[in-house]
Amino acid sequence: MRNVSIGIIGGADGPTVVFVTGEFQWLWILLAGIAIAVGIAIVIKILKKKK
Questions:
Q1: Of the residues 13, 16, 17, 24, which has the fewest C-beta atoms closer than 10 A?
Q2: Average of pLDDT values for 21-34?
Q3: pLDDT given at position 24
Q4: What DSSP designation does 12 have?
Q5: Residue 29 in this model has a pLDDT that exceeds 70
């Protein structure tokens, strides 16, 4: 296993940026992207329920 780091920076008034350092296979990038998309969908669903 190689050392890999993923950082997500997002603000309320700006775009979200994902920083990836290290070397890893495309499968891990794909899985990280799916996890991020699912997380965003869950947050949006929670916020819509509160309105």
A1: 13
A2: 78
A3: 60
A4: T
A5: yes
Digit-coded pLDDT (tens) for 2-22: 677 778 777 767 677 877 777
SS3 49: helix
What does the alpha-carbon distance between residue 21 and residue 44 come to, in Å, rounded to a whole number? 28
**Would you report the helix, strand and coil content of the chain in percent, each value rounded to 5?**
50, 20, 30
- Which residues are paired to 20 by β-bridges? 6
Residue type at 31? L
Residue 18 pairs in a beta bridge with: 8
Beta partners for 21?
5
Residue 2's alpha-carbon distances to 7, 14, 16, 23, 30, in angstroms, are: 16, 32, 26, 7, 17
Please state, in angstroms and rounded to a whole number, the distance separating the CA atoms of residues 31 and 13: 27
